[in-house]
Amino acid sequence: MDKIKKIKGFSDVFSPRSDSYTLLEAKARDIFFRYGFEELRVPILEKTELFARSIGTETDIVQKEMFTFPDRKGRSLTLRPEATAGVARAYIENKIYSSRDISKLYTIGPMFRYERPQKGRQRQFQQINAEILGSTAPETDAELLLMLNSFLRDAGFQKLSLELNSLGCPQCRPDFLKAVSDFLSRQDEEALCPDCRRRSRSNPLRVYDCKINTCREQIKKGPVLTEYLCGDCRDHFQTVKRLLGISGVQYRINPNLVRGLDYYQRTTFEVLSEDIGAQSAVAGGGRYDGLLKDLGGPDLPGIGFACGMERLLLILGEAPNPQSDFFIAPLSQKAKEIGLLLACQLRAKGLRGDVAFEGKSLKSQLRQANKQQAAACLILGEEELTRSTVLLKDLSSGEQSEIRQEDLLTALPLSRQ
RNA sequence: GUGGGUGUAGCUCAGGUGGUAGAGCACUUGGUUGUGGCCCAAGUGGUCGCGUGUUCAAGUCACGUCACCCACCCCA
User: Fold this and answer.
1) Does any strand B atom come closer than 7 Å to the Cβ of A270?
2) Which domain CATH number covers A61?
3) Which of A109, A230, A286, A312 could form a disulfide with A172 if both were Cys (CB 3.0 to 4.6 A apart)?
4) Which of A292, A316, A340 finishes a domain?
């Protein structure tokens, strides 16, 4: 029989890696709670049209990166490639806006993109998402970034950098796009790389993001986005920058920061790490004021970010194995019963530990206890049973003493505090 | 979708010019009729990714195929 193997780009996560996820999630929940956010759980499967309409039919994500398939009745479904579309859909469908002006929502879970896997990129990956719906105030942008910053710092990330840009709005961006197109069409085609020649027609803004030196030289002479921002966008961007400044958040303006989802406007940002390979963005997001309306909802604004857990954990490295408080080594059949009952009592008091039921020698049981890094081994032999005691061996000092079973709890050394 | 790299024990890897497999770690047991970590000894464990070909003989050579990794692209 052939073994069934997992599919490309998916992974099985065992402890201690799985513990790292839990810990990171817990930190996010704690910070987000303090910022007044509420958790929203949305489906991971949606109608394909939702993503096509929100992310944009011409984007790479929709064109070639989605897990899309027909259901049993022939309707096209897609495993979500990002969270915002589903959150927006849920917000509209449940008319959340009718009972409150502002909604602060977060959601944590798996996303799916059909890409070639590499370091920091798998086909199923875990994201932490936060969205603020219903406010155009630049203070909202700043607050969201402050929260992201606070979460990342709390989780222990030091060397990350924040890049910021404004993409303008439907009033001013068309002028800029036209200027870019005009500029590119006036350039010598030979000066651009083949990709950029294609981009200059399909998605001119992307040319600004090209890493080829000759393209960079060319685009340096091109129109600058910030000079095309309308008054409102300029003020908005200015305020966001000022608020970040007075809050002590370090950031860098990156006028070439173009994001791959069509719904973004005005504020966009990415958080980058230098230490995790080519896929360096650990978080990213921006404002999407037109999205809800485009999805058939009310004309309300929104802003949000997504945080890639695998990429963050790449920086954090391996978590230590969890330790336990006790390991019970019974030396007879009867002792296994007593051991089971004692373990149950200790666990009821909040301690963690195992009982060995395999009937192995004391020597191998102690080896096992040591391997598990248990703080103490409780030996239950014939002599102990007749006296209703246990032999308590402290595994770090090696000292042991015989104590009464009812005194166990107070006598145990603790592995963790 | 396009490149490049790697597939040998549970893990990390050795195996000049072809002669059907090794180390370290891990695991099990023993060295102590009931005592871990260090040490010592023995033991378990391999269709050498898979297939075809060349050959008396293939882990080693050729072709194909699959998987994984890294990068491009794109993004969390």
Assistant:
1) yes
2) 3.30.930.10
3) A230
4) A316
- State whether A287 and A389 are in the same domain: no
Number of domains into which chain A is organized: 2
A175 touches strand B (CB under 7 A): no
Q: From the Cβ of A163, is strand B under 7 Å away?
A: no
In a domain, A375, yes or no: yes
Phi, psi (degrees; rounded to nearest 5) at A8: -50, 130
Token digits of residue A22: 């839990």
Domain residue limits at A382: 324-411
Nucleotides of B under 7 A from a protein CB: 1-3, 27-32, 34-37, 67-76
Q: Residue A109 is which amino acid?
A: G
Q: Which nucleotide is nearest to A270 (CA to C1')?
A: B76
| Cβ of residue A366 lies below 7 Å from strand B | yes
Which three-class secondary structure state does DSSP give residue A389?
A: strand
CA–CA gap between residue A352 and residue A346 (Å, rounded): 8
A198 Cβ within 7 A of any nucleic strand B atom: no
Residue A115 included in any domain = yes
Q: Note the ipTM here.
A: 0.88
* Cis before A322 (ω within 30): no
pLDDT per position in chain A (417 positions), as tens?
567 888 999 999 988 889 999 999 999 999 999 999 999 999 999 999 999 999 988 888 988 899 999 999 999 999 999 999 999 999 999 999 999 999 999 999 999 999 999 999 999 999 999 999 999 999 999 999 999 999 999 999 988 999 999 998 888 888 888 888 788 777 776 677 766 676 676 667 767 766 666 677 777 777 887 788 999 999 999 999 999 999 999 999 988 887 777 789 999 999 999 989 999 999 999 999 999 999 999 999 999 999 999 999 999 877 778 889 999 999 999 999 999 999 999 999 999 999 999 888 899 999 999 988 899 999 999 999 999 999 999 998 899 999 999 888 888 876 643
User: Rounded to whole angstroms, how far apart are CA atoms A268 and A168?
Assistant: 10
Q: CA–C1' span, A113 to B51, in Å?
A: 32
A234 belongs to a structural domain: yes
Separation between Cα atoms, residue A395 and residue A230, nearest integer Å: 70
